[in-house]
Amino acid sequence: MHTTGEVTTEATFDVLSEFLSRLLTTAEVDAIDGLATSDISFAHFRTLMVLAGRARALSLAELAEILHLSVAATGRNVDKLVGMGLVDRREDPSDRRVKRVSLTDEGHHRVTEHLDRKEDEFRNFLDRLPAALRDDLHQVLHSIVTGDYLADPDPVFVHRRQKATR
């Protein structure tokens, strides 16, 4: 459908909102199915995702603030994840009172599996598009991404792209 004249911001918002909602729902269903069959609760997985997006180990207090939980609740989350071998907790070398939390290799693996499932669904969607529509979508999105229209990328995805290009 080709329109003449300028498309309003509201009309574009409506189409973009519908597109993102449907695309993300499609991708999330498969990814959540994988998570639901695992032994990790959503609260625990959220902790893994936060840790995956950081370039350094976080203190329990920092993690609690990001998760909007008490330090005690965060500590219980971390205890469970340590017991599962997904998170490592160590003393801060400069202050032994502070405990630093980071993902283990298995924790990274779980996060990567989840994100891979989502990416596979995005690729499946793109494979279903006619080539001309996929080309148009690529050009428009490329112009937006390379322009100065968006915030900095999510650290989890930057880390994944950097890792994939090594």
Automatic annotation (TrEMBL):
KW Transcription (keyword) present: yes
A molecular-function term among this protein's GO annotations: DNA binding
Domain (HTH marR-type): residue spans on this chain: 13-146
Domain of life of the source: Bacteria
Keywords: DNA-binding, Transcription, Transcription regulation
Gene3D superfamilies per the UniProt record, alphabetical: Winged helix-like DNA-binding domain superfamily/Winged helix DNA-binding domain
InterPro entries membership: HTH_MarR-typ, Tscrpt_reg_MarR-type_CS, WH-like_DNA-bd_sf, WH_DNA-bd_sf
SMART domains: HTH_MARR
Protein name as catalogued: DNA-binding transcriptional regulator, MarR family
